[in-house]
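Let us practice reading a record.
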Amino acid sequence: MQQGKTEPSTFLGEDRTQANNPADQLAFSTVLPTQRPDVPDTKMCHVTYSIEPVKEPSQGRALFRRVNCSLDTEDSDQDRQFLLTEMAYGLDFKDYDD
């Protein structure tokens, strides 16, 4: 049996700072189950992790996961946003080359 080639995953990171705290952003595309993990129906989705101020920057910061499974990933109306925590200090990813 010959296996097809798979493209390497591409992670797009953005090194950001807000109020002297790390506020990086990470985006990538992945295949997600549309209903349940045991159902083979899947979709290609664009996933983004980011940290943002909660109302006022002095009140803290929140970590969000956004998922967009539409064909137009730039259409933010299709984003599903998940609050992961409101007690985030910062988000700082380290990049390592091959």
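A brief commentary: The radius of gyration is 16 Å.
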